[in-house]
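User: If only I could read backbone structure tokens as easily as an amino acid sequence. Underneath my words sits a plain record pairing an amino acid chain with its backbone structure tokens. This is the protein in question:
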Amino acid sequence: MQPIISVKDLCKTYSSGFEALKSINLEVRKGEIFALLGPNGAGKTTLIGAICGIVNPTSGQVSVAGHDIKTDYRAARSMIGLVPQELTTNAFETVRADVSFSRGLFGKPANPALIEKILKDLSLWDKRDAKIITLSGGMKRRHMIAKALSHEPDILFLDEPTAGVDVELRRDMWNLVRQMRETGVTIILTTHYIEEAEEMADRIGVINKGEIVLVENKAELMRNLGKKQLTLLLQTPLESIPQALSAYQLELADGGSELVFTYDSRGERTGITALLADLGKAGIRFKDLQTSQSSLEDIFVNLVSDRT
């Protein structure tokens, strides 16, 4: 399938010499939810800005549905809706008027019914005649999303869309994202709430220090990099792990009252049966056990820390 966004060898170096992006290569598929994760300063916002034609790259190429963002800017940009991380609004305009004006900026004819639907979907209809300056931070965030949706884009960028919004607003926002995906809209989001990416995304990209660390299907990423742990709650705490058990690379936790075994669940043998037998031989008894699997947050932290 032809990607709806194609980024090739994209670099951005500022006049200070700082390399914000280093030879980025990325493809985003039509109709997917793509989550871009990375620590502060990793290059997420710069990359989004370059794709949207806001940031001028030093070198490289970006195309949107075959339209080059430089040479065919108007066609490429008309397909994109952008919700920036920073709230920038026409403070003294009303919500409905400002959203309608945003639609007109893209040359779209007036469509009051569509604007009404967008405002209702974002729980802004009751605020339609309120001046933007009177809105709460969460409502201003919703207003920015409404503006981005006003010209019916094929691609929606959400840069930290739930920063500063409460749980209810966040839930409504993600319901809207799911509805949009069902209509074929491609969604690219950055977020610090990694659990949101874990729940929402089809694919995950990790960027660190201006470089793409990996791009992977979420399920495949969790399967390949996620680890499982068996935690044994001991009847009698241990001061140290017996040498006879060194092959298992066990760890003591909770003051020696827990023994933790990390294993690969994909292998033919996990080693758990042999471990339990060897524990018995060593005279180590346990009263309970539990298993857990690495979350996307664990994987993300490990990926980034491995490259610092």
About this structure: The chain has two domains: 5-223, 226-305. The radius of gyration is 24 Å.
